[in-house]
Write a structure and sequence with these properties.
0% strand, mainly alpha
Length: 133
């Protein structure tokens, strides 16, 4: 996630024209989102089905659910809205461009929040500390 969003995409915008970079970046973010969604759901399933009952509920577990929700919001709400606006042609100075910019800003913030939450899970781990050890 960090590599795609903060290394690959900036390189795309430095190397390609804006329109092509945007198209490729969109594909990179889509693939990254699906990898994150599959990984997040697998982690969540392991918490629910492998960990003993009553052990779920640590704040880190809720962070994981929040990350999944952020991915779903981006892919199922923001991306379709942005794609629909792109279909209009996005004429510079138009209301569609302003709306696209607004949605892109929201999407960027969600990506940053998700990146930071993921970093927190990597640093602090997902499992609850074991009592008595």
């Amino acid at each position: 996630m960090w590599f795609a969003g903060y290394v690959v995409v900036p390189i795309l915008f430095q190397s390609l024209d804006r329109k092509m970079a945007g198209m490729v970046a969109g594909q990179v973010f889509t693939v990254t989102a699906y990898i994150g969604l599959i990984s997040g759901l697998a982690l969540f399933a392991s918490l629910v089905f492998i960990r003993p009952a009553g052990k779920f509920g640590h704040p880190r577990h809720w962070v994981l659910l929040g990350m999944i929700a952020l991915i779903l919001t981006g892919q199922l709400v923001l991306q379709p809205m942005m794609s629909a606006l792109k279909q209009t042609g996005l004429v510079e100075g138009s209301q569609a461009v302003a709306e696209f910019g607004h949605l892109h800003g929201i999407s960027s913030i969600l990506y940053l929040v998700n990146s930071l939450l993921g970093l927190g899970l990597v640093i602090f781990g997902l499992r609850s500390p074991v009592q008595g050890s």
